[in-house]
């Protein structure tokens, strides 16, 4: 059974810790907590008991550094354990200010990363060799996973579950936690992806993963069905039952939302149509009246 170890410091944010811990616990992982002393106090005043030494770790195990308030940082002893675990092939992750610890351990140089929007400038200044990605929920780069902070730690953990056990298991965990949807890291504002991911059909999730990343391209039903290993008729039936849309309508919804985003930032309708995968603006104009994108947030 996979072990998830949370490396803690004083003033740790409770949700940074509790959100991912709840996800991994619900998914059946073992949890452990480590710090430089037997007890740390959260930023919200709750004491948290922890061991001083990390347990033995395998390559399938995960070390997570939740964020904290203030200038506290992990000790060099714990930073060294982070480095060794990653060098041995393991995964390390951070939530919010926890990215600073990954940077101090030398794990962000040459990699994409993110953190809470209030801390992005500081992270970029501290670690100029890193590529700080803004306006995303989480990033994944060579077994280093970073999230934007607070509730996005849940998204990070669900992503790990989806990667290791399939999107259906991640969706099941999300439903057990009463989390409305599994949000994708690189597309925090793509509301169609959120609205139509609240199901447990693994075949449909696989097809949605393909459409989500290639929605501007022609995606004939035959290609989608082959990707899922089912017939076109079966895929249409499963997809419609799970999402309320056909695969084509789902792709159109993503295209329209992308075009709306571009138009909202000053792009002409014609240019937005082309960049979103439409042959011309006429189809976009027709579809804009059918799809009502949900405002971000």
TrEMBL record:
Keywords: Transcription, Transcription regulation. It comes from the Bacteria. The keyword Oxidoreductase does not apply. The keyword Amino-acid biosynthesis does not apply. Residues 205-297 form the HTH araC/xylS-type domain. GO terms for molecular function: DNA-binding transcription factor activity; sequence-specific DNA binding. This is Helix-turn-helix domain-containing protein.
């Amino acid at each position: 059974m996979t072990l998830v170890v949370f490396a803690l410091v004083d003033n740790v944010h409770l949700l940074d810790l509790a959100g991912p811990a709840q996800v991994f616990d619900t998914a059946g992982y073992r949890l452990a907590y480590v710090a430089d002393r037997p007890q740390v106090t959260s930023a919200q005043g709750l004491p948290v008991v922890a061991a001083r030494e990390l347990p033995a770790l395998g390559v399938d195990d995960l070390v997570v550094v939740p964020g904290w308030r203030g200038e506290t940082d992990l000790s060099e002893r714990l930073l060294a354990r982070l480095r060794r675990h990653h060098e041995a092939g393991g995964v390390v992750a951070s939530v919010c200010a926890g990215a600073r610890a990954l940077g101090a351990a030398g794990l962000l140089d040459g990699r994409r990363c993110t953190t809470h929007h209030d801390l992005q400038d500081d992270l970029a200044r501290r670690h100029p060799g890193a590529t700080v990605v803004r306006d995303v929920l989480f990033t994944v780069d060579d077994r280093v996973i970073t999230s934007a902070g607070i509730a996005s730690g849940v998204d990070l953990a669900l992503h790990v579950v989806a990667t290791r056990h399939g999107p259906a298991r991640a969706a099941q965990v999300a439903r057990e936690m009463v989390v409305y949807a599994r949000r994708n890291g690189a597309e925090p504002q793509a509301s169609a992806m959120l609205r139509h991911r609240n199901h447990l059909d693994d075949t449909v999730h696989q097809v949605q993963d393909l459409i989500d990343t290639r929605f501007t391209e022609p995606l004939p039903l035959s290609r989608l069905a082959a990707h899922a290993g089912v017939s076109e008729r079966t895929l249409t039936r499963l997809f419609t039952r799970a999402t309320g849309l056909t695969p084509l309508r789902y792709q159109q919804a993503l295209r329209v939302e992308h075009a709306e985003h571009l138009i909202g930032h000053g792009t002409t309708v014609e240019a937005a149509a082309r960049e979103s995968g439409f042959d011309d603006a006429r189809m976009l104009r027709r579809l804009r009246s059918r799809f009502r994108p949900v405002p971000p947030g």
